Structure formats: structure tokens, C-alpha cells
Amino acid sequence: MKAEQAKTVADHALVQLAEALKSGRSEELTRYLAMLARFHTYSFGNIMLILSQMPDATHVAGFNTWKQLGRFVKKGEKGIVIIAPMLIRKQDEDAKDSEQPQSVLRFRGVYVFDVSQTDGEALPEPSRISGEPGHCLCRLRGIIAERGITIDNDDLPFGADGVSRGGRISIRPDLEPAHEFSVTVHELAHELLHRGDDRPTSKTVRETEAEAVAFVVCQAIGLENGTAASDYIQLYNGETKTLAESLDRIQKTATDIITALHDVPDEQTQAA
């Protein structure tokens, strides 16, 4: 595919994405956000504790929170220990009877469980991309290597499917092929757009740009996006205006990747 054709594909896809963002949050995203509100935000120390005990943990909550979500901890499952603060009211022996007891901060170990340790109702989740990327997934990995970027499955942050590290991309193993393709393009977009002096300071802008590039490229190879891209962008508070302000950067990056996906390396041509 020539660059001009790829640009036309990108323009068409970006119009579709803008319309999806105008439509607002999907039902799936609304339910997903309501679920997330029930989960605690853990400190860095507790995240390290969780990952040291269960490296593949994704959604972690206490026994009662899982019960409220219609899920129950499986019999025999071992809890993950984290540290929880607690206030103890302590009366100073020298204080007068009229004085209020002092509150003393203490810490104790409590148990939480990963979703994989539970059974019950399915958790709400945003729409996922579907389809079959075929040879494009392998070609995408080749493009990443050609640009001097390594790709691996190591050291994923808690709950992340992929991460861009600057010259290195890490992707969670065992993702469905369509989702893996989308996540990989998203992280490649971060590498291409957000490692230079023109890197946007806003995380909302960065995530909007990366996911919009992924949307365009996935659309170009025939994957079904549904509301996956608009859901993701709205998770980071992106909107139509955010997309519009980055259109040129998104279009150029997506066009570059689409063109490269359709360029067959010389050694493959000779092998054929």
C-alpha cells in the first residue's frame, strides 16, 4: 500500500473514531467504571507485595468486595497479604478525664484475592477488539525490530497489557491475537510519538494519540474495533477535541505503520 492510500485509510478511520467519541461512553464502559470504583487504589508498597506473591495478578480485592460484585473466593485459595493502616484510640494515663483519647496509627496484615482466585458473575469490561490479524502480527514485530526497538514479555506493570519503555516494548503474554496486535501498535505509537522533545506533557493527550494510532492501523488490516478505542480514550478523559488537536501527529504515525505493514522485506520477496 502506498503512503497516499494509507493516508486516505487513516483519514476515514479518524472520522469514525471522532464520531464514536461524540457518542459518549458505551454501556460497557459505564459498567466497567462502576466496577472499578469498588476497587481500592493500592500504594506502591502494596503493589510490590501483591506482585511478589502473585506476579500475574490483575484485579485484586478483599473477600467482601468480591461478594458485593457477585463473585466468591474459591475454596482452598490462599490470600495475598497486604499492609492496611488502622487507627487505635489510646487514652494517655496522665490525661484528664475530660480530654479525648489520642488516635495512634498502626499497620496490620490483611488478605486480598485476585480475580483468578474467584468464581461467579463475569466482571464488566470495556469492549475488546476482535478479528484475526494473521501475518500482520508477525510483520508488526518485524517493523519494531527494524526500528531498533526490542519487544519482550517481561516485567509488566500491575494490570497492564503492554508498556513502552523507550527502545523496548513489553507485551503481556497469552493475549488474544487481535488484542495483542492492537496493544503492540499502541505501544509502538508511544515509542514513535512520545520519546522526543515534542512529547506532550498531558497523559490524556499521549494515551489518546497512541490509542487513535492503534485504532487506525487495526481498521486498516480489517480488525473490528467496536467501541474499544473510544472506551480506552475516554478512560483517560480524552474527547473529540483532544483527538482533533493531535490529528496530524496521529495521521502521520498511523500512515507510516500501515505503509510499513504492506511493504514486504526483500528476503521475504526472494523466498516467495
Describe the secondary structure blueprint for this structure.
Elements: H1 3-22, H2 27-36, H3 44-53, E1 60-61, H4 63-68, E2 71-73, E3 80-90, E4 102-114, E5 118-120, H5 135-146, E6 150-152, E7 162-164, E8 168-171, H6 177-193, H7 203-220, H8 228-235, H9 240-245, H10 247-262, H11 266-271
Parallel strand pairs: 6-8
Antiparallel strand pairs: 1-4, 2-5, 3-4, 7-8
Helix pairs in contact: 1-7, 1-8, 1-10, 5-6, 6-7, 6-10, 7-8, 7-10
Write up what this structure looks like.
The protein has 272 residues and is of the alpha+beta class. It has two domains: 3-26 and 126-266, no CATH class; 34-90 and 100-120, no CATH class. 47% of the residues lie in helices and 15% in strands. It contains eleven helices and eight strands. The strands form three sheets. A three-stranded antiparallel beta sheet has the order 1-4-3. Strands 6-8-7 form a three-stranded mixed beta sheet, covered by helices on one side. Helix 5 runs parallel beside helix 6 (177-193), helix 6 crosses helix 10 (247-262) and helix 7 (203-220) runs parallel beside helix 10 (247-262).
The helix fraction, in percent, is: 40-55%
What's the β-strand tally?
8
Describe the sheet with the most strands.
Answer: 3 strands, antiparallel
User: Rg, please?
Assistant: 23 Å
Poorly predicted ranges (pLDDT <50, ≥5 residues)?
A: 268-272
List keywords for this structure.
alpha+beta, 272 residues, 2 domains, single chain, 8 strands, disordered C terminus, elongated, 15% strand
Entry summary:
Helix content is 47%, strand content 15%. It is an alpha+beta fold. It folds into two domains: 165 residues, no CATH class; 78 residues, no CATH class.
